[in-house]
Amino acid sequence: MTCEIQHCQREMAKAIAVQEKQIHKLFVVSLTLKGLHALIEIVGGAALALFSTDAIVRWLYSKSDQSTDLLARFARTFTGAEHHFYAFYLVSHGVLNLAIVAALISRKLWAYPATFAVLIAFIAYQLYRYAYTHDIGLIAITLIDLIVLALAWNEYRLMKGAQAQR
């Protein structure tokens, strides 16, 4: 009977190890995607800062099909203040996300609580902003942040457990 229990425990430990490896791979993929997204945000924000608000509005209208389409509606409400906000937000969000990715890749224990704090602040702000803009892009970014947060939490838990066993 004892051999059967030990065999079941070994098999369960193997299954858990395989599952943890798969979750770790997902974590690495999510970091890669978050890093690429951060670079796109930095480049996009910098590019946005290079053009005038009028040039952006003209370009949006030129790409819209009709006065009721999404681009045209966005162009009508796009102000200088929004222009500066989006440029600043994209660059700062991208830089902070790139820093998060670099810190997590380094596998330093301090990087995880720092990541949690930054991502929770981003999520709170994005939801706050969504409450009055209803910009679906903010929901998409928030979902990505939530996934990375959950995967980072799992990695942090595993690292602390491994550290405690030493």
What's the short version?
The chain has 166 residues and is mainly α. 89% of the residues lie in helices and 0% in strands.
The Cα radius of gyration reads 22 Å
Instruction: Tell me the total number of β-strands.
Output: 0
The total number of structural domains is: 1
Low-confidence spans: none
User: So how many helices?
Assistant: 6
The averaged pLDDT comes out at 86
Beta-strand percentage range = under 5%
- Work out the helicity level: over 70%
> Which class of secondary structure composition applies to the elements?
mainly alpha
Q: Output the helix-strand order.
A: HHHHHH
* Main sheet makeup: none
Anisotropy-based shape:
elongated
Write up what this structure looks like.
By secondary structure, the chain is mostly helical. The protein has one domain (2-41, 80-165). Helix content is 89%, strand content 0%. The protein has helices at 2-50, 53-63, 70-77, 80-105, 111-133, 136-165. It starts with a helix and ends with a helix. The mean pLDDT is 86.
What characteristics describe this protein?
single chain, 166 residues, mainly alpha, 89% helix
SSE arrangement:
Elements: H1 2-50, H2 53-63, H3 70-77, H4 80-105, H5 111-133, H6 136-165
Helix pairs in contact: 1-4, 1-6, 2-3, 4-5, 5-6
